[in-house]
Design goal:
- Helix content is about 55%, strand content about 25%.
- It has about 375 residues and is an alpha+beta fold.
- The chain has 3 domains: about 130 residues, Beta-Lactamase (2-Layer Sandwich); about 70 residues, Helix Hairpins (Orthogonal Bundle); about 170 residues, 2-Layer Sandwich (Heat Shock Protein 90), CATH 3.30.565.10.
Length: about 375
């Protein structure tokens, strides 16, 4: 074979090798693109799918990293840095990957800033290529309902007796003093005060009952806490002006949590209201909002009468009052802080207190901030 033939065969071999290698590269590239398009379509389609399946739902990839999650899943505290944080749920996902059916689990998990116990019913199913759909239902309230119902009925029965009895006695007194205008006027003022107290009690009972039955996970949405603080301060404007108390507040925008806007407003409103009630006329109440390390904090401070260490252990109990005489004057029901505690627990957060008698008190509502990167938004639903 001469040199020309040698070079010819070498050239042919090179071309054939290039074709073979090129074909392989093209096939690999096509496979990668197919996988990417499949993953992309899964991510887009799941945005709409999750919303109709369950309030708390997550789609995870083969590495157990969440690619999609509903606001309810974040409200339950299922994820941290896009990963499931409960071993029981991870094991359920692993079982679902090798199963052709639906894997189910009823269990208790610890979640939130206080590691509160949450009773959940979880379901998982393989949706292809190692991706798993997880649905979680919070059954904590149903479990607690029977226990709290008995105590609540006993307490409310006792609390209702006082204003109702006072109204009855005052009505009789007014009827018997019809010929004494001054006495009638005095009893009428007292009657109006007791009627207002009864109205406030009924309002707080209804509010607490509604919050206890409300499904935060179902109604969960992104909430900017700056709007919560502003609205809570506004709802206390009349009360503050009546005592000549100035409410200073700082609430930067952009600090978001997953939860129920109205419930959070009521909780912060109650903290500010308490601060005003237990502060001297002409003083100042401070409200601050900040965030860090995945936690948002709303602090309400006053320079009022303060709370002893013993009382601090009981102030979140239903109908407990630090100063009963002042509560009677202001129409306080003893349910305000119970509502705050319930709202905090429902949002997987907590309420902290620092107080000294004669110095004042600071109540801090602490809530997990939202991971907005994986929340299914309105834009996602529109584009899905």
């Amino acid at each position: 074979m001469n040199d020309f033939q040698s070079w010819l065969w070498l050239g042919i071999g090179f071309v054939l090798g290039a074709v073979i290698v090129g074909g392989t590269v093209l096939r690999v590239r096509k496979t990668v693109l197919d996988k990417f398009e499949q993953a992309q379509s899964l991510s887009d389609a799941s945005a709409e799918l999750l919303e109709v399946l369950a309030a708390a739902a997550v789609v995870v990839n083969p590495a157990n990293v969440a690619v999609r999650a509903t606001a309810g899943a974040l409200a339950l505290g299922l994820l941290r840095n896009r990963e499931l944080i409960h071993d029981e749920l991870v094991q359920l996902l692993d079982k679902a990957r090798v199963s052709n059916g639906i894997e189910a689990l009823d269990t208790e998990i610890k979640t939130g800033l206080r590691n509160d116990s949450v009773f959940v019913a979880a379901r998982a199913t393989n949706i292809g290529d190692g991706n798993v759909l997880l649905l979680v239902e919070d059954r904590t309230e149903a479990k607690r309902l029977d226990e709290t119902r008995r105590d609540f009925i006993a307490n409310i029965s006792h609390e209702l007796k006082t204003p109702i009895g006072a109204i009855s006695l005052l009505a009789e007194a007014i009827a018997g003093a019809s010929d004494d205008p001054e006495t009638v006027e005095k009893f009428t003022a007292n009657l109006s005060k007791e009627a207002k107290r009864l109205a406030n009690l009924v309002k707080d009972v209804i509010q607490l009952s509604r919050f206890q039955s409300a499904e935060i996970v179902t109604n969960a949405e992104l909430v900017d806490l700056s709007t919560v603080v502003s609205e809570a301060v506004e709802r206390n404007t009349f009360r503050a002006e009546r005592k000549n108390i100035k409410v200073n507040f700082r609430a930067p925008e952009g600090i978001e949590v997953i939860g129920d806007h109205e419930m959070l407003v009521v909780a912060v409103k109650n903290l500010i209201e308490n601060a005003i009630i237990y502060s001297d006329d002409g003083s100042t109440v401070g409200v601050g909002l900040r965030s860090g390390d995945g936690v948002a904090e709303i602090a309400v401070s006053d320079s009022g009468i303060g709370i002893t260490t013993e009382e601090q252990k009981r102030i979140f109990e239903r109908f407990y009052r630090v100063d009963p005489s002042r509560s009677r004057q202001t129409g306080g029901t003893g349910l305000g802080l119970s509502i705050v505690k319930h709202v905090a627990m429902g949002h997987k957060g907590e309420v902290q207190i620092f107080s000294k008698p004669g110095v004042g008190s600071t109540f801090t509502l602490r809530l997990p901030t939202a991971d907005t990167k994986i929340v299914v938004s309105e834009t996602d639903r529109t584009n899905a």
